[in-house]
Design a protein that fits this description.
Largest sheet: 6 strands, antiparallel
Structural class: alpha+beta
Strand content: 15-25%
Helix content: 40-55%
Length: 690
């Protein structure tokens, strides 16, 4: 870990421009990185905070095909929405760029060419999936099929979102093209690969030894798992029609793979900033005194901790990240956030429904940040955080201080008299808070840091509640001058201490207190006269407003409507009756021996999420049948269930268990599995179905 860096380069994961930003993005990446950047600036540090739109992913092409527009139209639309959301929520990027920008194309091409000229790539002819009907090679996300590891039938060609396994499209069982629905074929094509295995020793020394004590356990653990599993060469080019051209001869029609081009977007964004500001970008990426920190979600750990560092190491002139404090995922009301299912709180919609309440959401998300595990955002918790903490603690303290100062002294900071022991102790506690909050922020514990900032507001509330200046004013007005002076120092300190977390509140509070120049972070520790006697403050304004039950219920109803719409869409898709299969003869059907049976025993197959081992009384025997229904039924719920069994199906060995038949199932309108069984009374086991 770099001590006393000369400067900081802070990056936030580039958002895909295939949709707007939602609260999961904000909680996982953008609020933490903004807190860190704002805090460092308040300390007077040299900070470069960059980001930009990731516009070359396959997701862009898929969105364009789905909406019948060009990829450029997709990225222009969502880049505008995303930029506005970041500005509206006070994410203080020094530069926000685009990977479609000329400077990025030039930077990424130059980076590739440098590694190519040094011989760092492997050139190979491989077989890739090809859609003959569409006349194109299929990028991983244009292929779906059955995951070979968990059996999920809707896995993508690069990853199974159910079990989390990283895949190659050629690993999928029964692959289908998402473009035409056709079964793709294998076709030879030439590509360039980054041989990650060459960097195995470097990564073990740099991460597994060098960062085992300062990187977050979730990050370190995932990286170690990858390295221990053995690194393999990874393609840096693809057969695509959207992206950055591969800048070498013989690569016509090929583009840089998005995972290779996207992280270089941090560098090109830095170049764009430097050109605009008349500065030199290189010290921020190449000077050993620079601390480089990547803020990402857990789905990007491998790219930022293994692949991008390997690229930087191969190039040779760049520094490596000092830390990659990745967060886990944020869920919404108990369910995984999903862009495709509209299960999200979109930032641009939030501001329409809760105008001027950006800091309330920033506060709620930071209080509940998924720093070490997945967390859940609920609207009830959001309301409670606002009403019970921001309004009742922070807002209440500031309001009382400003109202009393205006009431007693016409808004002028009073001259204090002799400080009591309580006064001195309170001011000493206040002066300790910057260091306490700093310690948490420096260790990327933003929830903890926010809690300490609120403790400073609690300090002010307790001081006023204990001292009761509204009572003392009658008999000892001189004492009240000191009490209000101390309370005003706490209010002034809060205008700076809250700024990393609540930037809009900090600005509003500074305006109320008429603090024209923001206080330096360390001034709070060094100076007890933050607001000097004789300073004029403004009139009282409420920092936060109570959020009523009605507003919260509207949000809950909105999500319920989304859930209902999703169910209806599933039902609609299932209602499309499959076409009749080709005709068979009576003799073909007569070969099947269908019997009524009863499930006697049921247990889960070890290490298999989908399979149940059933003992079924078929009337002719009791046999073992393995059925893929474990995700729909608990074993204890189906014992005694009447079922229809195909008894003369050839036995099949599944994970070491011989299955001697098949249970007949169908799906209902909601996509749930349903047993096909006789419901009439008195039908015995072994009765034939014909």
């Amino acid at each position: 870990m770099l001590e006393n860096p000369t400067r900081y380069t802070i990056t936030a994961a580039l958002p895909y421009t295939n949709g707007p930003i939602h609260i999961g993005h904000l909680a996982g990446v953008y609020v933490p990185s903004d807190i860190y950047s704002r805090y460092l600036r308040l300390q007077g540090r040299d900070v470069l905070f960059v980001c930009g739109s990731d516009e070359h992913g396959v997701a862009i092409s898929m969105k364009a095909k789905k909406e019948g527009i060009t990829p450029q139209e997709v990225i222009d639309k969502y880049d505008g929405i995303i930029r506005k959301s970041f500005v509206d929520f006070g994410i203080s990027f020094d530069n926000y760029s685009r990977t479609s920008a000329k400077i990025h194309h030039e930077t990424a091409s130059e980076f590739f060419k440098t590694l190519y000229d040094k011989g760092d790539f492997i050139e190979e002819v491989t077989e890739q999936l090809y859609d003959a009907k569409a006349d194109q090679f299929l990028a991983d996300r244009f292929v779906t099929g059955t995951c070979p590891k968990c059996g999920n039938e809707e896995a993508y060609g690069d990853q199974c979102e159910k079990c989390g396994s990283t895949l190659n499209a050629t690993d999928l069982i029964n692959p289908k093209s998402t473009i035409t629905g056709e079964t793709p074929v294998l076709k030879s094509t030439k590509h360039w690969f980054l041989p990650l295995d060459r960097y195995d020793a470097f990564l073990k020394e740099w991460i597994l030894e060098g960062h085992k004590n300062d990187w977050k356990p979730n990050v370190y653990g995932q990286v170690k798992s990858w390295i221990d599993g053995g690194l393999e060469p990874r393609a840096v080019t693809r057969d695509l029609d959207w992206g950055i051209d591969v800048p070498v001869a013989g690569a016509e029609g090929k583009k840089l793979y998005v995972w290779f081009d996207a992280p270089i977007g941090y560098i090109s964004s830095s170049k764009e900033w430097a050109a605009r500001e008349g500065k030199n970008w290189e010290p921020y990426w190449k000077d050993q005194g620079t601390k480089l920190v990547h803020f990402i979600g857990k789905d990007n750990i491998v790219f930022h901790c293994i692949i991008f560092p390997a690229m930087l190491k191969a190039e040779g002139s760049y520094i490596l990240p000092d830390n990659v404090p990745a967060n886990e995922f944020l869920n919404l009301e108990g369910n995984k956030l999903s862009t495709s299912k509209n299960w999200a709180v979109w930032l641009h919609e939030y501001l329409e429904e809760f105008p001027n309440q950006q800091d309330v959401l920033r506060y709620a998300l930071t209080s509940n940040a998924p720093e070490t595990k997945d967390n859940d955002f609920t609207w009830k918790d959001f309301q409670a955080r606002n009403n019970n903490e921001l309004v009742a603690i922070f807002g209440n303290f500031i309001n009382r201080v400003v109202v009393l100062t205006n009431k007693y002294y016409n808004g002028i900071v009073p001259q204090p008299n002799e400080l009591s022991e309580v006064d001195e102790q309170t001011l000493a506690e206040l002066q300790a808070y910057p260091a306490v909050i700093s310690s948490s922020i420096e260790r990327y514990r933003f929830r903890e840091a926010l809690g300490e900032m609120m403790n400073a507001a609690r300090l002010g509330n307790k001081y006023l509640a204990d001292e009761e200046p509204w009572k003392v004013i009658k008999d000892n007005p001189e004492r009240v001058q000191t009490q209000m002076y101390v309370a005003l120092q706490i209010a002034a300190a809060l205008s700076t201490l809250c700024e990393p977390f609540l930037p809009f509140t900090a600005k509003k509070l500074a305006r109320i207190l008429k603090i024209e120049e923001p206080l330096n972070w360390n001034t709070i520790t060094e100076d007890s006269d933050l607001l000097v006697a004789g300073h004029q403050i403004g009139e009282a304004e409420l920092l936060f407003a109570k959020i009523e039950d009605e507003a919260i219920q509207q949000q809950i109803d909105k999500l319920e409507a989304t859930k209902t719409a999703n169910k209806a869409e599933i039902a609609s898709s299932l209602a499309i009756t499959e076409p009749q299969k080709e005709a068979i003869q009576f003799e073909d059907f007569a070969k099947m021996d269908l019997r009524v049976g009863t499930i006697l025993e049921a247990e889960k197959m070890p290490k298999a999420n989908k399979l149940l081992i059933l003992k079924v009384d078929t009337g002719i025997d009791v046999r073992t049948i393995v059925s893929g229904i474990a995700e729909s039924f608990a074993p204890e719920d189906i014992i005694g269930k009447k079922v229809t069994v195909l008894v003369n199906l050839a036995p099949r060995n599944l994970r070491g268990v011989e299955s001697q038949g098949m249970i007949l199932m169908t799906t209902n309108a909601e996509g749930k599995l349903v047993f096909v069984n006789p419901d009439a009374e008195g039908v015995g086991n072994g009765e034939t179905i014909n």
